[in-house]
Amino acid sequence: MASDEARAAGGGDTASKAERPAFDTSVASQARMYDYLLGGKDNYAADRTAVAEALKAWPDMAFTARANRAFLGRTVRYLAAEAGIRQFLDIGTGIPTAGNTHQVARIPRRAARAGRPCGAGRAASARPHGGAGAG
């Protein structure tokens, strides 16, 4: 929030949490429009109307938004799982929608964490039986 917006909202230099200004749901937001294009639930009539108008000018906009999100998912999954990247700085994250950077980055890590104990568990339980049939 810009400092002048904070002053106007709270009357002082910064707005307190209790005095946060309400956002205007009658005005479309780029983040909420993107959320709507991705099938999210955090959007309002103004956002949906703006998307409908934008689709008249650029019919491929919905496909492009989904392709962009798919590219983000592939890239983050690769970086987290294959390249070993553990920290991501997502600038301009917008509204949390399914498939955000932090959600996608956790998937390979969860699989890796689950895979290690599972593999160790199998190996440990298989040892007593490993030579049973050998003779």
Write structural notes for this entry.
It is a single chain. The protein is mainly α and 135 residues long. It has one domain (25-87, 95-126): Vaccinia Virus protein VP39 (Rossmann fold), CATH 3.40.50. Helix content is 59%, strand content 0%. It contains five helices and no strands. The longest helix has 30 residues, at 101-130. It is flat, with a radius of gyration of 24 Å.
Number of strands: 0
Structural class based on helices, strands and sheet pairing:
mainly alpha
Measured between the Cα atoms of the first and last residue, the distance is: 74 Å
Along the chain, the helix and strand elements come as HHHHH
Q: What is the number of helical segments per DSSP (H or I, 4+ residues)? A: 5
For this entry, give a set of tags.
single chain, 135 residues, mainly alpha, Rossmann fold, 59% helix, 0% strand, disordered N terminus
Task: Draw up the topology in text.
Layout: H1 3-10, H2 30-37, H3 45-57, H4 61-81, H5 101-130
Helix pairs in contact: 2-3, 4-5
Gist?
This protein is an all-alpha fold. Helix content is 59%, strand content 0%.
